[in-house]
Amino acid sequence: MSVALLCVAAVALDALLGEPKRWHPLVAFGNFAGRIEQRFNSGGRGWRSHGVTAWFIAVVPLMLLATALSWAPYIGWVLEILALYCALGMRSLGEHVLPVAQALRGDDLDEARKRVSYLVSRQTSELDRTEVARAATESVLENGSDAVFAALFWFVIAGVPGVVLYRLSNTLDAMWGYRNERFERFGWAAAKIDDVLNYIPARLVALTYAVLGKTGLALKCWRTQGPTWDSPNAGPVMASGAGALGVELGGAAIYHGELHQRPPLGEGPAADADAIERGWQLVQRGVWLWLLILCAGAQFYA
Predict the structure, then answer these.
(1) Is residue 21 predicted with pLDDT exceeding 60?
(2) Are 171 and 32 within 8 A, CB to CB?
(3) Which of 77, 176, 207, 260 has the most C-beta neighbours closer than 10 Å?
């Protein structure tokens, strides 16, 4: 089966079923990674070399196992679809961000704060309506890149090995890639590997957002604002996305009790419930565009 059809099938499966409610492979992997971290970073004393070793132990054997299973006669293509399906989080992203917009439209700020706390690591208990909308819009743009587009990219580039490598690495970055006393040294490898794996996908996503939105503004924001962001990949994605939507994102946010003055992103009015929903629609349209390009490419090279 062609890569294009495998991608279409996996996206359709995600749209139909969403994330597995039971026995999600990434939940099991997270538990496994937690035990590895306890072994190699006990008390936050692990060094960079320990983090590298832990990353290899967590990722490489599972990547090789998934690759071997995908080569199984007759059912290999089914396993390829399942691998990509488990790596995608498109429907789940919508299920998390849209209730924030609904709560804001219903003037239920407490519910909106609670819902957005599931999406972001910043402190949400005292956010106002604009800050909640800004956080949710940023999340849908960035997580659309991480949870959807990058998984598709690595599946197209390297099949099951690529998508498993990417998704496990991205999960380890989410668990270990913090700049705090516990993970500053140990999580360095996980953070850097994730940065490398996301470098090209993030820029393709930024281009996708620009093409499907306010193109000139998006490209301008990507060029001028993207480099000001701490993350080399989130900056271009969110700057372009904010420009494509024509809204203002970024600004001050509290993370783990500390106030961070973040650079502004985008131009236009402050984010609101409409911006959240339009951000989600931008991700959806981007996925359809990618699938259309893949299918057209498959016909051209057939």
Answers:
(1) yes
(2) no
(3) 176
Question: Identity (one letter) of the amino acid at 142?
Answer: E
The encoded tokens of residue 48 equal: 């960079």
More confident residue, 178 or 202: 202
List, in order, residues 6 or more apart from 115 with CB less than 8 Å away: 96, 99, 100, 103, 136
> pLDDT tens digits, residue range 274-285?
999 999 999 999
Question: If you average pLDDT over residues 16-39, what whole number do you get?
Answer: 91
| All structural domains of the chain with their residue ranges | 3-301
**What's the pLDDT score for residue 19?**
86
